[in-house]
Amino acid sequence: MSPRIYFDHSATTPLDPRVLTAMGPFLGGAFGNPSSQHHEGRVARTAIETARAQVASLIGAEPDEIIFTASGTEADNLALIGAVRASGKPGHVVTTSIEHAAILETCRFLAASGTRVTHLPVDADGLVGPESLLRALQANVTLVSIMAANNVVGTLQPIEELAHLTKLHGVLFHTDAVQAAGKIPLDVNRLHVDMLSLSAHKLHGPKGVGALYVRKGTRLSPIVFGGGQERGLRSATENVAGIVGFGAAAAIAREELAEEATRLARFRERISRELARTLPQSYLFGHPALRLPGHLSFGLRGQEREVGKLLAALDAAGVALSAGSACNANHAGEPSPVLLAMGYDSERARGLIRLSLGRFNTEQEVDRFLAILPQAVASITHAAAHSLEPTPDLPAVTFA
Ligand code: PLP
Questions:
Q1: 166-217, pLDDT tens digit by residue?
Q2: Which one of the listed residues 117, 224, 327, 329 is annotated catalytic?
Q3: Model-level pTM?
Q4: Which residue from 97, 159, 178 has its CB within 8 A of the most atoms of ligand 1, so it is best to mutate?
Q5: Would you list the DSSP string of 343-365?
Q6: Could you tell me the end-to-end alpha-carbon distance of the chain, in angstroms, rounded to an integer?
């Protein structure tokens, strides 16, 4: 049996074996509490500080501007709730209509406590227009939060321009860079951002570790209270092995980013060309050029309601793809809120298939996928044409 093909790296990535090697000692003998003063504690502390420098270096930050958290979600919560609390007022948060749930749900929580929330619209490619941001900035704004790369369609926002406009109004700017980090170059000073969220498991690091970059001088209140770790902004004994893994993953990503991005973009372009050739009913979502190198989202005209079946057929044939965000996997078959916000009608918005490539994908896997896909599409088309005939049971869809 051929090995499975994993094309769902926007959901999560496999751990790089070099990251696992770096983590090894901290899952075993090096168990000290980094807050302890003895040798064991100092070993753990040194490892955390090395990782902090590695993560900082990936985004051009200073090590003491990195706050480790338990996830990208927690980093987003800390940025938004922390900035509003520090302002001492309910305030006004400006964000977009296509953010990840980690931002949208945090905004909903803040709104319930009186914070005004403005959702900026996006165009058909998923881009935020600077004019709509400028209009929103006319009202008193506490914080602007706009994602660097969208997790569903892969579109990259012009963060440098949007953050620059925001800073001209003296307003804090946060970006959720969970999907972008390690895949495109990011430099917090060139981008003019005050805060930036990261998550280790999206860049071949471990799950359950994130970080928030907080520019020196930014006023932020904690959302987790306790022993005062992480400069008082994130109490709790640190996940030492996870943080070490995050550091190693960030160092590898920094080193290999340019080569990896070129290779994945080449694979993506090849898949996109073949889609157009072999499946003329296919159409692409997201910006054609301003997009993550390894990310391709597409639909099949007239087969939008068959996406669940197609993903199941592909899964049975050994290929893992998804119908958009892993967090929305339970809502497969429903229109994607991101596509609705981009102006697609509810029929088209049901049809999203997300393909996201990663470090260990090979040209041979792309070849095999391109052979399997038309067969899988033909099988569901055939099944639909004979829908009165009994169909074989397929395993449940795996959305990773
Ligand atoms: N933000 C974006 C854009 C994401 O894609 C994700 C995860 O899919 C998150 C935040 C949440 O990160 P985590 O899984 O580390 O909580």
A1: 999 999 999 999 999 999 999 999 999 999 999 999 999 999 999 999 999 9
A2: 327
A3: 0.94
A4: 178
A5: T--HHHHT--EEEE--TT--HHH
A6: 21
